[in-house]
Design a protein that fits this description.
There is one protein chain. By secondary structure, the chain is an alpha/beta fold. It is 42% helix and 20% strand. The chain has helices at residues 5-12, 73-86, 96-101, 139-155, 163-177, 183-190, 196-223; strands spanning 13-15, 21-24, 30-33, 40-43, 54-61, 64-70, 91-93, 106-111, 125-131. The strands form 2 sheets. It has a 7-stranded mixed β-sheet with strand order 1-2-7-8-9-3-4. The protein has a two-stranded antiparallel sheet with strand order 5-6.
Length: 231
Amino acid sequence: MNKTVKEVMEKVSHTFKNGVTVVNTTPHPLTFQDSQTMELVSIPSDESLVINAKVKEIEIRPHFVKSVFVSNKDGEIKINAIKTLLGEEVVIIGSMIAAQAYPGEVFGMTPVEGYERVAPSEKRMRDDKFVTYEEITDDKVYLDNAKEFLRRCIAEEDVFKSKDELTSAIVNIQNYTYTIVPGIYELESCLFYFSPQEIANYLSEAIPIVKEFIENAEQYREENKPNNSNK
């Protein structure tokens, strides 16, 4: 870097009124909306602090591959430098590839409601909600989240008004059901092209299937616990 890390950090970081500090490590400037003042804040980028990662294909079986996101030493050095200067609670924003390559260290953004499908130059991002790809190993978390989502689907007509909330709920369902309800996977990619109500209509067809699965999930988990026969 020609500039010092501190100089670069001051340029590409911002602390919002809610106390959250964000650092832009993407190759592009980002526009956030302060959740307390509604002020628009533009955070520039600096190529010397961009966190990169690679996409690697792994063959799962003939004709099918899975994409995995690979971190590198340079990215790890930059993450450590950022945290050393700005603290462990700093939110490091990176590309979607970087967020998946450095789960729990680099994060994605969530658009302000109403700005999900606008042109990139018009995007407004939230300062109070971010996307993480870190693993949750306790499947009970997914199960509980899935149950709560389905309860609200059935009980509340306006559950789909917030696309951010819908996205989070779908991800929870996906993570728990995995291949058992493959149709759920189509929904995440639909979020940018269809309205919440259109997605709600589609999801209503899948709810009975997911509900039936969830009702039996706890029993299934108990019966398939590791070393269950040794107890």
